[in-house]
Amino acid sequence: MSRTSRSHHTSRFSRSPATRILAAVVLSAAAIGAGASPASARTVTWTLSDGFENNPAATWEVGSSGGGYGIIYSFDTGMARGGSGGVVLDQTGNGFTSVGKPIAPVVVAGATWCRGYVWAQRRVYATNTLTVNFEAINSSTWTYAGVSRYNLFGPGSGRWEQIFISFHPTTRNLYLRVSVIGTPGYVNVVNFDDIYLRCTTTY
Q1: Is residue 147 domain-shared with residue 179, that is, in the same domain?
Q2: pTM here?
């Protein structure tokens, strides 16, 4: 190819000053638009995983209404689902017996979703349906932020059953609790272990 033809080929694809200015304006506008886009969402996760090990009585507390009782133990590998710790709750009359503790997850109202579970085992043979609650309570108003009611039908079979809860909290001042609801005339004994709660906030 001759020198003349190469020169003609180059000038054919060259940009005029006006074209270069227009391209710069378009790129600048695109850069401004990119800078104005919303920031990426932020996700914060808070997790409680508690097998009632390592002196659980120091952080968990038993409550009762109607004559029940509870034992927080950390010494019996034969009763615990895993490790050596757990909680046994008994409620033989009206009312309830519970074990719970305060928690303080990261919460943004309308942006937080909590999900969790606890394992429960019916300990005494009985023909009645035994009811347990898994509860998240607003500590300021003492009203439910979330509650899951579950019926244990197995008559002291020793089978472990998983109870789930999910809720949208509006405050981080919460009290997490499991309760055995009494049935008059029956012995209602439940063994609890391995409680888990995960709260995710995206904002």
Answers
A1: yes
A2: 0.78
